[in-house]
Design a protein that fits this description.
about 0% helix, five-stranded antiparallel β-sheet, about 250 residues, about 45% strand, 2 domains, disordered N terminus, Immunoglobulin-like
């Protein structure tokens, strides 16, 4: 099995040549213009930070490519040549705090055999929920993110604000907020030992699972104390977008 990672952005429908390889995503030149779309493909799943694909239903797969389409842009993540019956692709990129997932239906595979190239959708929703939170004595906040959908969640940031929060974070719902303005995530998994967060695997919430987090700052540390009644928690997804929940205290 020959695996190569291609972090390359392509304009829709445009091929880009790569230096040092036989052609970016060499989809099989003789039939790359005849891509068939197959619906109802369900021989895949997301495990932790990976996309796992069962290729046993295809004869003599030459290569398979994992891509994401977002509007006019197509991002090619990885191509595996001569894959085994089961192919694994990275779906969350912790080194860059980014993800192949979108909150639209854009994730797909290109499977090339000797006869044709087939496009297969592997899109899954990305959605989580925060049901409650705890304020610790030092002013830090603990909460849990439950993944309710089929795609992995990359917890990019959990905003904590509202009129009851003395030291609020940024409000992601404001027009001036951009995800690119975020630096390091402001939470760490409660199961992670201090100093063991280099790989940031704690930021991934697999489908159907729940991960508990503690804030790295202290939103409720203030000499004056809270003087309001509302706390808002907003989960900013690595896939883009956010979800908010309001709590009365």
């Amino acid at each position: 099995m020959d695996r190569r990672t291609l972090v390359t952005s392509l304009a829709a429908g445009t091929a880009v040549a790569a230096t040092g390889v036989l052609g970016v995503a060499a989809y099989n030149q003789r039939n790359r213009d005849e891509v068939a779309t197959e619906t109802g493909f369900d021989d895949y799943r997301y495990e932790n930070d990976e996309l796992v694909v069962d290729l046993q239903g295809f004869d003599e797969v030459e290569e398979v490519t994992f891509r994401t389409s977002t509007g006019e842009e197509t991002i090619e993540h990885e191509t595996i040549s001569q894959p085994d019956d089961t192919a694994r692709f990275q779906a969350v990129f912790l080194e860059t705090l980014d993800t192949a997932m979108t909150r639209r239906t854009g994730e797909h595979l290109l499977v090339t055999t000797a006869e044709k190239t087939t496009r297969l959708s592997v899109s899954e929703p990305v959605h989580g929920v925060i049901n409650d939170f705890t304020i610790h004595d030092d002013g830090a906040v603990e909460c849990a993110v439950e993944n309710l959908a089929g795609g992995p969640i990359l917890t990019r940031f959990i905003a904590i604000y509202g009129d009851a929060v003395p030291n609020p974070t940024v409000d992601p719902r404001r027009d001036s907020f951009t995800r690119d303005s975020l630096r390091e995530p402001n939470v760490v998994g409660t199961d992670v030992h201090p100093g063991d967060t280099d790989d940031r695997s704690d930021l991934v919430v697999p489908p159907g699972e729940t991960v508990s987090y503690r804030s790295t700052d202290e939103p409720f540390t203030s000499a004056g104390g809270p003087d309001g009644e509302t706390v808002v928690l907003t989960l900013v997804y690595g896939a883009g977008g956010s979800s908010s929940w309001s709590f009365e205290v």
